[in-house]
Design a protein that fits this description.
Shape: globular
Helix content: 40-55%
Mean pLDDT: 89
Number of strands: 16
Low-confidence stretches: none
């Protein structure tokens, strides 16, 4: 195969470590995501012969994390000329297959041998039939490792599941969680880990709950994207950046381009409603009636938005944690709470909608393991209507294991009897304890034989994100 000199020159330009043994300092100096170690382990683990597919929303640092992985390989024992990086989105590669790209990389580096390579393919969704081609690379070059990334997570995930069974390891990189946010700002000293083995109620505490709450409020409004944090952009500019460079590109370019959506304004209008009502219960019927979009199209839009990491859906159970036969109801959350601010305006802790944003922020910390997702409970019995914000079920028998009520209020510490739905759910399902978030109260109260653990919402948000990272790094 003859490779054009323009292509070879471009490849050499994208791989500067072939002649200087390091990545660009602009990337090297950026802080590493706390997801990085788990990502790198999946790349270097040769016991599992699979390509790693890094997927996630726009502007969360996927490309930077690939460069950080390259830097780690360069500092190890890997031959620097056997590490190749390509941005597949670049037009000069548009007519090449992945096999041709790999051959061109080898030709450019001067190492024709196809063994022992680490190949990084950025924005791979722009290549037609990428999933079939990547699978073939894994099968044909068994001694080399392939890492692909993409922002159009919907198409990546679907194609990965369809064609990459046993060949791909999906790695999802979300927006910044609150743990990472504090880490990047150098504010982890606001959290104190509890090492007292006799006190099992509290794994963490805050050294200054007032400052932690201010950081939490900023995180909910502006803190989801590392680029904003590193650039130290002012709040109005960050909102404009999120709206123009993330929201608009996904809704007006990525999804229409991938799925042939013609009425982009209809899609944008639907997302605006979901963003404004983040954390609210909806049904396809009610959304269809309020938006004028037929149910079939509506279901399609929501599935695209969910797969693109723009929204998260929580399913409903009743007071006995049983699913409904016809479960048309769900709660829809923004996958990143700061998107609401970008679309509308910053929200203050005294505003009516702040409680929903707190709930959205806590949901955003959860991992993507589909079998470990919480539910919410809502039921009607006579005149009593009950609801519990989060319920976790046992993986084996689907019995309730825990219950959580998310509040931005301290009143329930003194008036636990007002938590009627939570107390009833616990009694109905044999739960002896539950968690309730507060503004700044951190204590436990026993009411009618049920132990209620009150934890500041900011601290609880940190704990959930911390546990997700800890679990990911242990896999």
């Amino acid at each position: 195969m003859e490779i054009d000199d323009l292509i070879l020159d471009r490849i050499r330009f994208e791989n500067p470590w072939w002649h200087r043994q390091s990545i660009d300092q602009d990337y090297e100096h950026l802080p590493r995501r706390l997801f990085f170690e788990a990502f790198l382990e999946r790349i270097v683990n040769k016991a599992v012969r699979r390509a790693v597919v890094l997927m996630g929303p726009r502007r969360v640092g996927k490309t930077v994390m690939m460069y950080h992985a390259i830097s780690a390989l360069l500092k190890g024992s890997t031959d620097t000329r056997r590490i190749g990086f390509i941005n597949v989105e670049n037009p000069v590669f548009s007519q090449l297959s992945l096999d041709q790209i790999f051959a061109a990389i080898r030709q450019s580096s001067g190492v024709e041998d196809a063994e022992g390579w680490y190949i990084f393919l950025d924005e791979i969704q722009y290549l037609k039939d990428w999933e079939i081609q990547l699978k073939n690379l894994v099968d044909n070059y068994r001694e080399s490792r392939f890492v692909a990334s993409g922002s159009a997570a919907a198409i990546l995930r679907m194609k990965s599941l369809e064609s990459g069974a046993g060949r791909f390891t999906d790695f999802r990189l979300p927006a910044l969680n609150f743990n990472e946010y504090l880490n990047f700002l150098g504010q982890e000293n606001l959290i104190r880990e509890n090492h007292n083995p006799l006190d099992q109620d509290y794994t963490h505490d805050s050294t200054d709950i007032r400052l932690l709450n201010w950081s939490f409020i900023d995180y909910l409004n502006f803190g989801g994207f590392p680029e904003i944090l590193f650039a130290n952009q002012a709040a109005p500019n960050s909102s404009l950046y999120i709206r123009s460079d993330i929201i608009d590109k996904v809704l007006l370019r990525d999804l229409p381009g991938l799925y042939g959506i013609e009425n982009v304004q209809e899609l944008y209008r639907l997302f605006s409603v979901l963003a404004y009502k983040t954390g609210s219960e909806v049904s396809y019927q009610s959304l269809s009636e309020s938006s004028g979009i037929n149910k079939k199209t509506l279901q399609m839009y929501i599935s695209y938005l969910e797969a693109s990491f723009m929204i998260r859906i929580m399913r409903r159970v009743d007071d006995t944690a049983k699913s409904f036969k016809r479960n048309d109801y769900m709660k829809i959350y923004l996958a990143n709470p700061s998107v609401r601010t970008a679309m509308f305006a910053p929200i203050e802790p005294t505003d009516d909608g702040f409680g929903s944003l707190v709930e959205t922020g806590i949901v955003a910390q959860l991992g993507q393991d589909e079998v470990d997702q919480p539910y919410y409970a809502r039921w009607s019995k006579g005149r009593f209507q009950g609801e519990v914000d989060q319920v976790r079920l046992n993986r084996m028998n689907f019995a309730p294991e825990s219950a959580l009520e998310i509040k931005w209020s301290n009143r329930y510490v003194e008036k636990p009897e007002e938590l009627q739905s939570l107390l009833l759910f616990c009694k109905q399902n044999g739960l002896q304890e539950a968690t309730v978030t507060s503004i700044d109260k951190h204590t436990s109260v026993i009411y009618k034989d049920i132990k209620l653990h009150f934890t500041p919402a900011s601290l609880y948000c940190y704990i959930v994100g911390h546990q997700q990272l800890k679990g990911l790094n242990m896999r």
